[in-house]
């Protein structure tokens, strides 16, 4: 199996259940594509930027994603899955 994290009901933290559908979509895209900026997430999910912003806020509140300042453009953040949070979920299996 590849190193990609597969989000399923069995491996995803319980906090995922508490997020809106848009947040689940953003989480799935991050799992498949890796680290992305908010604008890139909007393109990939085909959601409005405001919806992506809200989804990311929800995911950050539940500690499901990490953000770092982009090296390419310091005005943007790059979002990725919180590997520690998902590693704990995988260890529960």
Automatic annotation (TrEMBL):
> CDD domains from the xrefs?
HTH_ARSR (cd00090)
HTH marR-type domain location is: 20-76
Gene3D superfamilies for this protein: Winged helix-like DNA-binding domain superfamily/Winged helix DNA-binding domain
Stretches that traverse the bilayer = none
Q: Please, which domain of life does this record's source organism belong to?
A: Archaea
- What's one GO BP annotation on this UniProt entry? regulation of DNA-templated transcription
**Protein name (database record):** MarR family transcriptional regulator
